Amino acid sequence: MAAKAGKETKTNREVVLGFLEEAESWQLLSSQFPSKVGGRPAWLSQVDLPTVSELQCEKCKLPTVFLLQVYAPVTEHDRCFHRTLFVFCCKTPACYSRNDNKCFKVFRCQLPRKNDFYPFDPPSDEKPDQLMDDHQVLSSGLKLCRLCGCLGQKACSRCHSVTYCSKEHQTIDWKHRHKKECSNEASQSSEELNSFLFPEWELVTEPEELPAKDEKLHESHSLDQESMTCLNNGLENSELESMALHETQDTKVFQKFKKRIANEPQQVLRYCKEGSPLWVSAEHVPRDEEVPECPCGAKRLFEFQIMPQLLNHLKVDRTDASIDWGTVAIYTCADSCDQGTKYSAEFIWKQDFSGEQAV
Fold first, then answer.
1. Cross-strand partners of 332
2. In contact, 147 and 174? CB cutoff 8 Å
3. What is the C-alpha to C-alpha distance for residues 41 and 28, in angstroms, rounded to an integer?
4. Helix or strand or coil: residue 229?
5. How far is the C-alpha of 20 from the C-alpha of 16, rounded, in Å?
6. Domain MYND-type spans what residues (predicted)?
7. Extended strands (E) in 245-346
8. 277 Cβ partners below 8 Å, 6+ apart?
């Protein structure tokens, strides 16, 4: 994602597609600046991690879980020579109310090329002789939750050898494996990916290539976005006319979504910085004023979206309920403002399928 995502400009607005591939574990460590899905976060800054309260689901108040990260530097600014966006989500199906984004969190972190954590030169494509295991302790000395890989400041009161972000995660890990480890019945296995985490994949990218017949569709994308915004702002028609118009528009939007992804049905992410999302419905499209400005005062603009196809790889299906979304759009500070080594919260908009739609 790094090389390709960083080259996006306002003029071409090229769409870059994300796909999942298997990778060796060392390729997904922080020192390799990965884009990835699942497992534990590969933190960019080694200090100032999001706090437990910042990572809480706003509905159930339980800790959210790492979903994915996208390495997307903005090369024209040294302050974001390294730049990664981190997305977290709740694992409680009941929190996924229709078109409600309170079960998601997104953070932006960026560093200049010369920083306190990484060499000036890019990492080698070969496996290093020595690797820093950043699953439980970062290079800065910060301890991580043994279960989820987020900031962990609660140590096991018995052995003090493992730490957790919350009582909830400590309880889960105790039942899963630490009860035996703590009583010396089994050796600790920090490398093991527990079933609580989403399956881990590398996120690889390639530019979207549209058949010639679809070029016109691509060019009209911004116009369709404007039309949907107008529709959501409300039209001065009778109630019946509005319903009929909406139904027609919604069908048109969904058919366009299906047609656009048919060329690459395995895509799990679409990156188009300062472009427009590919919506799944004419319903619940954000108006400009519904996307809050960054605290620095700059607008937040669309950067990438998470596709529903990703759900097929997360092993979240249950007979009673499951986490779900139509698409999840991420909006970030247009200036990629300098926040030092901190993780800055950005904005997420979740849109669900309407009616009986299905991909």
1. 301
2. no
3. 9
4. helix
5. 14
6. 145-182
7. 269-271, 300-306, 327-333, 344-345
8. 225, 270, 302, 305, 327, 329
| Phi, psi values for residue 275, rounded to 5° | -95, -145
**Average pLDDT of the segment spanning 240-266:** 80
Report pLDDT digits (tens) over 11-22.
Answer: 358 999 999 999
Other C-beta atoms within 10 Å of 256: how many? 17
Answer yes or no: is pLDDT of 309 > 50.
Answer: yes
pLDDT of residue 6: 39
Q: What is the rounded distance in angstroms from the CA atom of residue 303 to the CA atom of residue 283? A: 20
**Phi and psi at residue 300, to the nearest 5°:** -100, 130
Which pLDDT score is estimated for 253? Answer: 92
The pLDDT-based confidence of 179 (bands split at 50, 70, 90) is confident
Strand partners, 345: 107
Q: What span, in angstroms and rounded, lies between the C-alpha atoms of 224 and 308?
A: 21
Band the pLDDT of 30: cuts 50, 70, 90: very high
Q: Which residue has the tokens 């010639």?
A: 212
CA–CA dist 268, 201 (Å, integer): 11
